Amino acid sequence: MTIAIRLSMYDKLLFAKTIFNKIKVIISFRSIFIQKIHDMKFTFEVFSNTRNYLKNILEKTSLEDLNKIHETFNNNIIWNIGHIVVSEQLLVYKLSGLQTSLSDEMIDKYRKDSKPEAFVAQNEVNEIKDLLLSTIEKTKADYKNGIFKAYNEYTVSTTGNTLTNVDDALQFVLFHEGLHIGYIKALLKVIKK
């Protein structure tokens, strides 16, 4: 049995208008999302450049110099680079409630408030070198795919700012990486004397 519903011209127009408005909302959200990705393009370009800069340091610096702790410092070059990789994963993924790309051992070894405990062998340096680029490429792809939905607010001790979303985290991570690149440059200068 078929029931025929006759709609007045007014009801048809009202229905069409409702559908049209819903489509406009969907298009509007899509436009905002595309603009957000475009706005982050520069951020990911800077990440790529800084990570390649660090990779170059790993390739040009001897294993002994990467591990050397100068008397005026409490860490070394390889710890700073490992710390950069770990911090990005914790601030971006862990605080978003997502799995990091790192082992618990690596996280514990290079997290905030840790310090170098032993000589880092070449195979671990190679792993960190690979993670420098692979982690940030994954972050870029995951960001583009919109997987970062939730975020656990976190106040960073360095600046006192509270990170409330993944965009805040990515901006802070760039600052944090710049800070540690400064330490690395200072270490390179003093260990070459």
Description:
With 193 residues, the protein is mostly helical. It has 2 domains: 7-39; 40-191, Four Helix Bundle (Hemerythrin (Met), subunit A), CATH 1.20.120. It has 7 helices and 2 strands. A two-stranded antiparallel ribbon has the order 1-2. Helix 2 runs antiparallel to helix 6 (122-144), helix 4 crosses helix 5 (104-110) and helix 4 (77-93) packs antiparallel against helix 7 (166-191). The longest helix is centred in the first third of the chain and has 31 residues, at 9-39.
Output mean pLDDT: 89
Q: What is the highest CATH level, the class of the largest domain? A: Mainly Alpha
> Care to count the β-strands?
2
Number of alpha- plus pi-helical segments: 7
Helix content: 55-70%
The H-level CATH homologous superfamily of the largest domain, spelled out, is dinb family like domain
Strand proportion, as a percent range, falls in under 5%
What is the CA-CA span between the terminal residues? 93 Å
Strand and helix map with partners:
Blueprint: H1 9-39, H2 41-60, H3 63-67, H4 77-93, H5 104-110, H6 122-144, E1 154-155, E2 162-163, H7 166-191
Antiparallel strand pairs: 1-2
Helix pairs in contact: 2-6, 2-7, 4-5, 4-6, 4-7
Question: Main attributes?
Answer:
193 residues, mainly alpha, Four Helix Bundle (Hemerythrin (Met), subunit A), two-stranded antiparallel ribbon, 7 helices, 2 strands, 67% helix, 2% strand
Quick structural summary:
The protein is an all-alpha fold and 193 residues long. Helix content is 67%, strand content 2%.
